[in-house]
């Protein structure tokens, strides 16, 4: 007979709970003042504390890209980022891409090209594509495929995602 | 009139999906919401001997730790735990007792005020086990294979037919023979959305449950039976599902745990699984197959033997249709098909996209390719030579079968005529190029379902059914069907689903939803139309007073006289005579079984694949693929194409990438993360093309649709394996074809 401890049971005694810190986040143009413990990821801050559930949790390990948001214009995995690290940052989520004039061109292109099925990875794909375009590195469809490979789509909408991004980037579809 | 059916309409839920407004199970707010965190067993078999939760419970904000030690009394009999998709056996009951039946089994639930606290508290809980020896290796236990038990679920999954002719004799005498063993490991669905349940504890003790499921009524049934709560007090809502692929066909354990905790604590609670825990319930079972084929010197297939042994759990007999396809695709006279199970210390497998179909065809269609080579025939020519208009298992004609046209159009689009048959004969610079093909088939099923159609006082059409849309496009195609049936502009039609307050529909699976719910939507709208017509006849100075139903048409939100379209009454005016109330009709659609039973009904495909193989690295890339589908009527070419493309990506995944690797020493899946469980990323997917071949079918269901959810994947892995053979001369019979197998 062998006795095994759960691998989760590494800590033997409870350490004091972490203290909360004031965190200021500007999200989609609105300033939010939050009191968060350091263990709260930016993703959980958005979903659980601000109810901005457009940003998705697909793995919580930075492996799927569903949680992609734009921090100061750059695309990042919000699950790998602690909210306190982004104090003072300017964050754009999927909820902030459309404006009074309507949907962001990428949002429209995703609809037109049916660049999704279940929709769960879609906010991350679109935020990632916005980041991709701002980076300015993608010149061809192959570049898009490579640089969008941090965002998994289990439904397999990749060809349509590439079509949608290409159209908005006004790349030659035959390139 | 069908102004919308057949058109590439954009998804009606598209705006919700691209703006983040579509809400999934873990995204609903509730006052005073508590968070649960599941603790999974670290052993595969044995007993929990001690749960020390003291340190966790001392933390301020930790509410309770539930385990078998303190769970309340629940339903006693297995029957109560059987959901609509339960295979024969005794369903797993979370927290039932100290017994551990598989690695990753939920053994405790920590409930705390915040998600982070619940997660942290879970790390403080010590669990001790008494371990017993486990057995998780299918290939070491083939001698224990036995026939599956039968039960209600077996109705949809018939066992193999009895042997026909004399396989042994004919195979021995055959001029051309092939024989091979095909294997693949377990696979996990891994939809992007992790399983989650939010239970809202209402004031009157009622539960409103947001669950990730492919059938809200199935979750309702389970909760009601297990916890002894009347149906009326359990409402399950699931308007958006972040992928299912079969994983949501049965209620998963987070539903049980969330409901248990909510009822004990009398408060709302959310339980979300982690990605690692997504590997702790159903999976596509590992399978070992043996295929032997014999043909005449001219390439006539005469003898088929296909034996499959799949894994199941120790408590339920999960089955799938692995071997029957040979008898449906080829007219051989001497056929023996067998299917057996080996129970192991794993969780019960669950249907995963094209369950059994992609498994069986991956072996069969690879063997057919090998036989065609041995017979000196082109693989397409071989299949045309061995074409059947009848399902030989049932000895029934197909209700429609345009597979020949799939071969022709697919080959033409792909450029198959330019192929040089010799293996290793095609190159692109340094890399070897291979062209392979395969046939696909999946049964077209039709189930009973109900739908409600309502014409609101402001003249909008509201249709609903408690089905699901796991990304398949259900919302959109149902809206199209409703709009066309009642002649409404599509912007005035709204279709809703995923709510147990709506009329009953079966779980969404098996490629039957378009046929099943579509037929229900059609009949509900037709019945509503009849009702509106009767009302129109009773209107003052009605132009329809002496007119029969077949003399009118529903068009542009009006009832019109066919003979004189200027004679019309608007639907808005008709509903206006109803005293300020909407007009509604709820209808049931039943399959016409008397007619359907005279035919075999199936969707077919021909798949053509190009691979490039770098021999130095053993890497394989699918550079191009064409799938030609004979799927009956295509309701929406845009969403239909996405279904097939998605299936093809799954086929590439199964053929080249995904596999759950079991460490048999621990009886645990090792690669339980999206970094180690490989699925295709964008860069893995190149040029995929889809052809829908014209096919008319008046038997299969009132809409003439055949279902597209599975047909995209079934033929792909074999076509890839065949292309790899053409490229390299190596016949790989173990999926996925990873580089180590080619070096």
Describe this structure as you would to a colleague.
The complex is a heterodimer of chains A (175) and B (743). Chain A has five helices and five strands; from the N terminus they run ββαβββαααα. By secondary structure, chain A is an alpha+beta fold. Chain A folds into two domains: 21-96, Beta-grasp domain (Ubiquitin-like (UB roll), Roll), CATH 3.10.20.30; 105-169, DNA polymerase, domain 1. In chain A, strands 2-1-5-3-4 form a five-stranded mixed beta sheet, with helices on both faces. In chain A, helix 2 crosses helix 5 (158-169). The radius of gyration of chain A is 19 Å and the shape is elongated. The termini of chain A are far apart. The model of chain A is unreliable at 1-5 (pLDDT under 50). Chain B has 743 residues and is an alpha+beta fold. Chain B folds into three domains: 25-133 and 191-274, Aldehyde oxidase/xanthine dehydrogenase, a/b hammerhead (Aldehyde Oxidoreductase, domain 3, Alpha-Beta Complex), CATH 3.90.1170; 142-187 and 283-445 and 597-741, Aldehyde Oxidoreductase, domain 4, CATH 3.30.365.10; 447-590, Aldehyde oxidase/xanthine dehydrogenase, molybdopterin binding domain (Aldehyde Oxidoreductase, domain 4), CATH 3.30.365.10. Chain B contains 17 helices and 31 strands. In chain B, the strands form eight sheets. A seven-stranded mixed beta sheet of chain B has the order 3-5-1-11-8-9-10. Chain B is globular. The mean pLDDT of chain B is 97.
């Amino acid at each position: 007979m062998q006795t095994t401890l759960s691998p989760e049971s590494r800590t033997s005694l409870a350490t004091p709970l972490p203290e909360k810190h004031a965190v200021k986040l500007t999200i989609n143009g609105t300033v939010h003042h939050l009191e968060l413990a350091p263990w709260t990821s930016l993703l959980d801050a958005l979903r659980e504390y601000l109810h901005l559930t457009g940003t998705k949790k697909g793995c919580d390990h930075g492996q799927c890209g569903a949680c992609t948001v734009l921090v100061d214009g750059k695309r990042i995995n919000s699950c790998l980022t602690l909210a306190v690290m982004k104090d003072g940052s300017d964050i754009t989520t999927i909820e902030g891409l459309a404006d009074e004039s309507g949907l962001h061109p990428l949002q429209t292109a995703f609809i037109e090209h049916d660049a999704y099925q279940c929709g769960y990875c879609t906010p991350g794909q679109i935020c990632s594509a916005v980041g991709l375009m701002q980076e300015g590195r993608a010149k061809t469809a192959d570049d898009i495929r490579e640089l969008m490979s941090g965002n998994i789509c289990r439904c397999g909408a990749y060809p349509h995602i590439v079509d949608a991004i290409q159209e908005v980037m006004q790349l030659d579809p035959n390139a | 009139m069908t102004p919308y059916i057949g058109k590439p309409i954009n998804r009606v839920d598209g705006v919700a999906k691209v703006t983040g407004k579509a809400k999934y199970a873990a995204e609903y707010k509730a006052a005073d919401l508590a968070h649960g965190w599941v603790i999974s067993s670290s052993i595969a078999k044995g007993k929990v001997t001690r749960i020390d939760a003291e340190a966790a419970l001392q933390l301020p904000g930790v509410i309770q730790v539930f385990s078998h030690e303190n769970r309340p009394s629940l339903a006693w009999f297995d029957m109560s735990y059987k959901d609509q998709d339960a295979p024969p056996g005794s369903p797993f009951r979370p927290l039932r007792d100290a017994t551990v039946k598989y690695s990753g089994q939920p053994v405790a639930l920590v409930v705390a005020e915040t998600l982070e606290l619940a997660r942290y508290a879970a790390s403080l809980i010590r669990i001790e086990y008494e371990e017993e020896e486990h057995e998780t290796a299918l290939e070491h236990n083939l001698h224990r294979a036995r026939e599956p038990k039968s039960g209600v679920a077996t109705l949809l999954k018939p066992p193999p037919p009895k042997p026909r002719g004399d396989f042994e004799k004919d195979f021995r005498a055959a001029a051309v023979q092939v024989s091979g063993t095909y294997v693949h490991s377990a696979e996990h669905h891994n939809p992007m959305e992790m399983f989650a349940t939010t239970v809202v504890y209402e004031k009157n003790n009622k539960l409103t449950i947001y669950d990730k499921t492919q059938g809200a009524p199935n979750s309702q049934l389970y909760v009601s039976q297990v916890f002894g709560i009347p149906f009326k007090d359990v409402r399950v809502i699931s308007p958006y599902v972040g992928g299912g692929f079969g994983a949501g066909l049965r209620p998963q354990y987070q539903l049980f745990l969330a409901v248990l905790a909510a009822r004990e604590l009398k408060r709302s609670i959310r339980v979300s699984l982690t990605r690692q825990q997504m590997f702790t319930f159903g999976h596509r079972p590992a399978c070992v197959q043996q295929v032997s084929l014999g043909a005449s010197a001219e390439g006539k297939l005469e003898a088929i033997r296909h034996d499959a042994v799949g894994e199941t759990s120790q408590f339920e007999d999960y089955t799938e249709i692995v071997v029957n396809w040979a008898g449906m695709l080829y007219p051989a006279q001497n056929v023996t098909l067998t299917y057996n199970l080996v129970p192991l210390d794993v969780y019960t497998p669950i249907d995963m996209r094209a369950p059994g179909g992609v498994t069986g065809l991956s072996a069969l269609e690879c063997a057919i390719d090998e036989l065609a080579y041995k017979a000196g025939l082109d693989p397409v020519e071989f299949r045309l030579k061995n074409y059947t208009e009848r399902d030989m298992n049932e000895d029934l004609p197909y209700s429609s079968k345009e597979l020949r046209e799939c071969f022709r159009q697919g080959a033409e689009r792909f450029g198959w005529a330019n192929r040089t048959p010799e293996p290793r004969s095609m190159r692109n610079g340094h890399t070897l190029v291979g062209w392979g093909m395969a046939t696909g088939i999946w049964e077209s099923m039709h189930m009973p379902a109900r739908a409600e159609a309502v014409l609101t006082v402001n003249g909008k059409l509201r249709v609903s059914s408690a089905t699901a849309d796991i990304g398949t496009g259900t919302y959109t195609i149902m809206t199209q069907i409703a709009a066309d049936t009642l002649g409404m502009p599509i912007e005035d039609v709204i279709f809703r689903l995923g709510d147990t307050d709506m009329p009953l529909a079966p779980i969404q699976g098996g490629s039957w939803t378009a046929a099943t719910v579509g037929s229900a939507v059609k009949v509900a709208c037709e019945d509503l139309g009849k009702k509106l017509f009767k009302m129109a006849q009773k209107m003052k100075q009605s132009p329809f007073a002496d007119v029969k139903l077949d003399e009118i048409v529903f068009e542009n939100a009006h009832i019109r006289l066919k003979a004189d379209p200027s004679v019309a009454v608007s639907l808005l005016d008709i509903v206006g005579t109803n005293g300020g109330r909407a007009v509604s009709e709820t209808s049931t659609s039943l399959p016409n079984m008397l007619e359907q039973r005279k035919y075999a009904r199936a969707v077919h495909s021909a798949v053509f694949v190009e691979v490039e193989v770098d021999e130095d690295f053993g890497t394989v890339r699918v550079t191009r693929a064409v799938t030609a589908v004979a799927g009956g009527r295509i309701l929406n070419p845009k969403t239909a194409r996405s279904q097939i493309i998605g299936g093809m990506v799954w086929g590439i995944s199964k053929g080249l990438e995904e596999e759950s690797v079991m460490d048999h020493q621990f009886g645990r899946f090792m690669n339980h993360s999206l970094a180690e469980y490989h699925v295709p990323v964008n860069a893995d997917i190149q040029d995929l093309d889809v052809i829908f071949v014209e096919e008319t079918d008046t038997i299969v269901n009132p809409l003439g649709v055949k279902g597209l959810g599975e047909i995209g994947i079934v033929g792909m892995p074999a076509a890839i394996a065949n292309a790899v053979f053409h490229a390299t001369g190596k016949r790989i019979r173990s999926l996925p074809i990873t580089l180590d197998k080619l070096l």
